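Chapter summary example.
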Amino acid sequence: MEICFLTHEESVCRLIMERLEKFGFRCFLQNDWNVLYSELQAPQCRIDLLVCDFMLTSTCCFNLFEAIIEAGKKIPVIYYNDPSFGDLERVNHWISQNEIYYQSAFPSKYLDFLDKLNKTVCDPRIKRHISLLQPPVPLDGTEEENVGAEEKLNLVEFRLRNNLSPVLFRLFEFMYKNRTKDLTLKELEKALFSRRRSFFGHKSSVYSYISRLKTSLGAGETSNVRILRSSRGCYRLIVL
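The structure predicted for these 240 residues follows.
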């Protein structure tokens, strides 16, 4: 079985790969979208399963599931650091995600791999290096203080500090208040253009505003706020 790890975080994935290779799985790294796409389209594709970095979904130039389906294949796609689910639900989430896209039962031959991958990801010696899965570090060493830390974010100060325009702030405020869920393009479109007579037909503008907001957040002082694109074409704002 050939397992392709698609990631920019090569160090932590090498730790995961080393553990998996002890169980007999053959793993290799990839970080070039063009090479990956060509590999997926090849008649003799050597990839049996894709293990992806959830952080890469926001920079993905194509939908992995759709690209695989277009190539006439059903290669499972796993996001090893998807923050949406806990340790106990992660394997079921991986399975259901693939079954939804491929409209077929998940191949049983991969179940052993999923189980070992999840156990590896859950290992504290590895999990502490995975940015989206590790618990936040308390400000004063207590969980209680840290729980309230995110809620104290002053939105007005945040806007001024990151120099957000009114429309970008409206987008950020909507995503921040709904940060526990994946937001569809239609929901974001409505939030941005609901004051107009017709808020449909602005998808290209939504993409542009999201890109500009991500750039503003990356250039600002609050680097722990990020916008991720999920495999379902939705967007989520997270506070690390």
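To summarize the output: The first helix runs from residue 10 to 21.
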